[in-house]
Design goal:
With 214 residues, this protein is an alpha/beta fold. It has a single domain, classed as HUPs (Rossmann fold, 3-Layer(aba) Sandwich). It has nine helices and six strands. A six-stranded parallel β-sheet has the order 3-2-1-4-5-6. It is globular, with a radius of gyration of 16 Å.
Length: 214
């Protein structure tokens, strides 16, 4: 974890508006580029998990990905706001402000500084399939409930993954998804029914530029 001190005013500027007790979904990613699947996943989670807000945490870079073609943070932030187009979805550059590279550090910071909020980490089934490769993934699962959004054809690979197997006894039935934000971690749910096949990778040209843009 970074030991760099971050002044409270800078932290506050990177945090979207909230009120105590809110149920907040956290969707982290490069958003390179953001697309309609990010929006659809967020709206799906808002409904199924009974969340008040979803925060998009636009990361400076993903430790598990090649970042050579990563667009500037400001460009990705503005594009994310344009795509979100929903008052319940907020876009944040928190990880850039607190200078974290790993999800565990981001969650630790949020839980420490915003203890009155109930967070749920949102990920796609493709991320569950490789969750065991994340830095301190077991600790992440111990800190915050997790909602996994099915992304066919990743379903079988995701549910057979080392992380899914290790956390199997903490999985909630899908019909209890609305209770997830109130559950003590570890707790997770696998949500089905969203049929979208979009990814940022498919929306990038070989040179890293975004398709449909100059």
């Amino acid at each position: 974890m970074s030991n760099n001190f971050v002044a409270p005013r800078f932290f506050a500027q990177a945090i979207p508006p909230y009120t105590e007790g809110m149920r907040i979904g956290l969707l982290g990613g490069s958003f390179n580029p953001p697309h309609q699947a990010h929006r659809a996943i967020s709206q799906f989670a808002l409904k199924r998990l009974q969340l008040d807000r979803v925060w998009w945490l636009v990361t400076p870079g993903n430790p598990l990905k090649e970042n050579g073609n990563l667009h500037e943070l400001g460009e990705r932030m503005q594009a994310a706001r344009d795509v979100a187009n929903d008052s319940r979805i907020e876009v944040s550059c928190l990880e850039s402000v607190i200078r974290t590279r790993y999800t565990i550090d981001t969650i630790n910071t949020l839980r420490r500084r915003l203890s009155g909020l109930r967070f749920v980490w949102i990920m796609g089934a493709d991320n569950l399939a490789q969750f065991h490769r994340w830095q301190h993934w077991r600790r992440i699962a111990d800190l915050v409930p997790i909602a996994v959004i099915d992304r066919p054809p990743q379903s079988f690979r995701a549910l057979a993954s080392p992380a899914a197997q290790a956390l199997a006894r903490y999985r909630l039935p899908e019909n209890k998804a609305a209770l997830l934000a109130d559950q003590p971690a570890p707790a997770w749910v696998f949500l089905t029914g969203l049929k979208l096949d979009l990814s940022s990778t498919r929306l990038r040209n070989p040179d890293g530029s975004w398709k449909g843009t100059k």
